[in-house]
Each structure stands twice: as C-alpha cells, then as structure tokens.
Amino acid sequence: MDDRTQQEQASPAVRKRVQDSFDLQGLMSHLGARLTHIGPGRVHVVLPARPEVTQQHGYVHAGATSAIADSAGGYAALTLFDEDSDVLTVEYKINLLAPAAGDHLEAIGTVLKSGRTLTVCQLEVYGVREGGERKLVANGQQTLIRVNRLAE
User: Fold this and answer.
1) Max Cα separation, the chain?
2) Which among 4, 56, 106, 121 could disulfide-bond with 73, CB atoms 3.0 to 4.6 Å apart, if both were Cys?
3) What is the tens place of the pLDDT at every residue in 24-80?
4) Neighbours of 118 (CB within 10 A)
C-alpha cells in the first residue's frame, strides 16, 4: 500500500463512529490502547508497553498483542460499512513472529476484501522503540461479519 493511502483519513463522521465504538471497549481501555489512525479500510491501534500487559519474561503478552490486532482489523472493516452496520469477528489467525518488545506496540488492520457479508483483513503488529525503530512481531488474517447495528 502506498504512503498516500496509509495516511488518508476517513471522513469526520466515520472517524467519530469508530472512535465512539472503540471508547466503549472495556478491554481496550483496560489495556491502555488507543486509536492513532482511522483511514478508509485502515486503522492503527497503539498499546504502550507497561508491566500490566507483559508476560513472565517482560514481553507484551500474546493475548494483548492479539487483542489490539483484532480491534485494528475490526475497525478497519467498520470504516467501509454504512452507519446502520456493525462488525463482529468470525475468526482470526495470528502468527507471533518475534517477542513483542518495544516502548509500544502498533497494530495495523488493513482491509483486503470488503464484501456484503464477510470482510477479510490483514493484521500486522510492530514493536516500536523510542527512536522509531520498528520490528514486525506478529501478523495474521481475520474474517469479519457485517451485522445490523443494535438500536441504542
């Protein structure tokens, strides 16, 4: 994907809908994750490395790594849905390629194919050091289903 597409922002209405939904996720709040980019078919989620999200060797836990990847992909899909639709994960596969180390992790969800019912996303998670050095620590693929938005 070219740099222009990576930096393109979703419309203000889509960004608000995605951010509002993300803010309702107790797990993301509990982990300390935040959205850093919301573009058409592409969302970035950042998780600061803190003792509360590590495993016994001091690396960010695979569960936290997987959770931010899942959310990044789900919200990437949501950016392409109409306002009456919502999204649920059907399945995902993640490969843990290296210990999740760094000052923070950045998960990037990118839509590969958005369909009427099912959407497929690519998932990438990078360990990012203070100086900006990035290392791919996990990658995967996800299938999501479009569902009708629940009445509020």
Assistant:
1) 45
2) 121
3) 999 999 999 999 999 999 999 999 999 999 999 999 999 999 999 999 999 999 999
4) 13
| Residue 139 amino acid letter | N
The identity of residue 84, as a single letter, is D
Q: Which of 17, 35, 42 lies closest to 112, judged by CA?
A: 42
pLDDT value at residue 2 = 46
Helix (H) or strand (E) holding 139: strand 134-148
Are the C-beta atoms of residues 136 and 97 closer than 8 Å to each other? yes
Which DSSP state fits 52?
G
Cβ atoms of 42 and 109 closer than 8 Å: yes
Backbone angles phi, psi at 37, to 5 degrees: -155, 130
Residue 54 exposed, middle or buried by CB count within 10 Å (0-12, 13-18, 19+) = middle
Dihedral angle computed from the Cα positions of residues 90, 115, 84 and 35, in that order, rounded to the nearest 10 degrees: 70
How many whole angstroms separate alpha carbon 135 and alpha carbon 106?
10
